[in-house]
Design goal:
The protein has nine helices and six strands; from the N terminus they run αβαααβαβαββααβα. Helix 6 packs across helix 7. 32% of the residues are buried. The structure holds adenosine monophosphate. Adenosine monophosphate binds next to helix 2 and helix 3.
């Protein structure tokens, strides 16, 4: 899943993961968990994450290599938030070419103005990662996750200054991956500025025809 922060990659990846019974792998979620537990990885990633910049490639590449080697990835997996740089894409290619795994790139398109509005009103479940928008669902501000009943939080990097930095990083470093993947893989774009269930229907149709 390719797209800017706030495009809905995580929400859609979670829906796909449930429907297709393959793991949803979010490097952001793995890093946040490491940060919460103050592991060595978490400590090394902390300053980058809080500033909204990218964690060095070698750290995230190692996370992904370890995760993809697990048995539950044998039937496929959904990557959300990785790769984010051309060297990460090359690392992934090297990992996947070993066993001939094919890539379907789904790029979720949303304008910056909409993203800023979404990120600044986003509430996240720190346990299961589900996200809620307080503009669409005012009950969710400081409320509970409707799946696991954990108290929702606002991510530290969902504040105006850090959001601006994350969008800049996306445009400069991650957006070039669109061209990279357009040339190399099955590549489709979906309009992410629509209701969640409409987007997921489009994505599931794309996935079904790809498979
Ligand atoms: P996300 O939850 O995908 O928005 O990621 C949150 C933060 O984790 C990002 O702003 C980065 O600091 C870091 N991060 C997540 N995935 C990556 C990645 N593939 N490469 C570098 N940094 C990442």
């Amino acid at each position: 899943m390719l797209g800017p922060p706030g495009a809905g990659k995580g929400t859609q990846a979670r829906i796909m993961s449930d429907a297709l019974k393959v793991p949803h792998i979010s490097t952001g979620d793995i890093l946040r968990e490491a940060l919460k537990n103050q592991t060595e990885l978490g400590k090394r990633a902390q300053a980058y994450m809080e500033a909204g910049t990218l964690v060095p490639d070698e750290l995230v590449d190692a996370i992904v290599a370890e995760r993809l080697a697990r048995k539950d990835c044998d039937r496929g997996f959904i990557l959300d938030g990785y790769p984010r740089t051309i060297p990460q894409a090359e690392c992934l290619q090297a990992l996947l070419s070993k066993d001939g795994t094919r890539i379907l790139t789904i790029a979720v398109k949303v304008d910056d103005g909409v993203l800023i509005g979404r990120l600044s009103s986003r509430w996240t479940c720190p346990k299961c990662g589900k996200m809620f928008n307080a503009n669409l669902d005012p009950d969710k501000a400081a409320g509970q996750c409707d799946e696991c009943h954990t108290a929702l939080v606002q991510r530290k990097d969902d504040n105006a200054g850090v959001i601006a930095e994350r969008l800049q990083v996306y445009h400069k470093t991650t957006r070039p991956l669109i061209q990279h993947y357009q040339g190399q893989t099955a590549y489709v774009e979906v309009n992410g500025d629509r209701p969640v269930d409409e987007i997921s229907r489009s994505i599931m149709n794309i996935v079904a025809s790809y498979l």
